[in-house]
Amino acid sequence: MPRPLPLVLVLLAACTTYNTVAPGGALPPPTNLFYDVASGGPGTVPVATLLEWDLVDDGSISAWNIYSRGNTSEDYLLRGTTTSNSFHDRGVPELQYYVTAVDFDGLESAGSNVVTVDERLTLPRASQLFSTSLNGAVALVWSDNPFEADPAGFRTYRVFSTPFNLDTGECLDTGWVLEGTTVAPEFIAGALPNGLPRCFGVSAVTIEGFESLWSPIVDDTPRPDARNIAITAAQFDASQSGFRFWRDQNADGLAQDTELGLVLAGASPSADFSIERDGAGQLWLTPVRLQATVAVYGDGPIPDLTSIDIAPVGGYSAAPVQLQPGYGYAVQITGSPDGFLRYGALRATHVGQDFTIIDWSYQTDPGNPQLLRGAR
Known about the structure:
By secondary structure, the chain is mostly beta strands. It has helices at about 5-15, 145-150, 250, and strands at about 35-40, 45-50, 60-70, 75-80, 85-90, 95-105, 115, 130-135, 135-140, 155-165, 170, 175-180, 185-190, 200-205, 220, 225-230, 240-245, 260-265, 275, 285, 290-295, 320, 330-335, 340-350, 355-365. Strands 10, 11, 12, 14 and 15 form a five-stranded antiparallel β-sheet that branches. Strands 16-25-24-23-21 form a five-stranded antiparallel β-sheet, with no helix packed on it.
């Protein structure tokens, strides 16, 4: 049901003079007329109006007439006739509508209630939008201020996305698609290819169908990840002491298919890093390939792997770094045939004497340091 109209609109409706033929008297007027608009896109004017009213079980009704006007100084004119209790008015909506019932002799009932297509009911746009890179997906969270502005008038949020050009920093204007709708201020856009950047935006829709302006636009890039991977210290089991984020035949000139998250021998020249134990029983992350360097992320423990948002610009080294529980680490990999840097990240969830358990993520998009994306 639409929201109650402002008092000024009710007064306008009360002054309406219906341009109908003489009422048949026996026909009851249509009741509970309401509307729903279809938007041309976030922040644009509606492009169609769906009118509906209660169905009356009266065999003497042959049709319904729909009347409209563009402003309150005009007379109502016949907009259309239908045999169903709904009418789809394409194009920019008129300002006001009402409906009459028509019998088989052409006599009309009194008019229904008047509805006013009031674009002033549009909700404010979401003021903030945040995103998190996931494996084959992007998690979106935004401010709930559109709902909070008018809970009774809020219907849903709509989530949009389009390809993003990392080199030019631009969203593809002609590629926007609807990812889905939700009543909560959060959404996971799934089934997305890893390594392909996309832009995201959110709009709010009223119960009448009016769509707000977009939220701020954010870009994000899904990337592979995995949780709870055990890697042993070389001094305990050398065959399981190395790790390779990504091995791809296109990037490395190898014959095998693409492989992600490989646990292998620490002495293997293919390993990005190995886990070594020193004389004091401490575990160290040691780069193996010449192309791999490592940097500690931040100054202390991080709550989750997704806390590693953008790979650091500098601070990488081929020197071993001590593993500490809860700490995050970024890995920079150079020397690919395409000439681009690639970035990985890991968080040590457990550090013992014989093995460590890590969560890891890797950005397959060349040159893209994005492992999680926040607000822009």
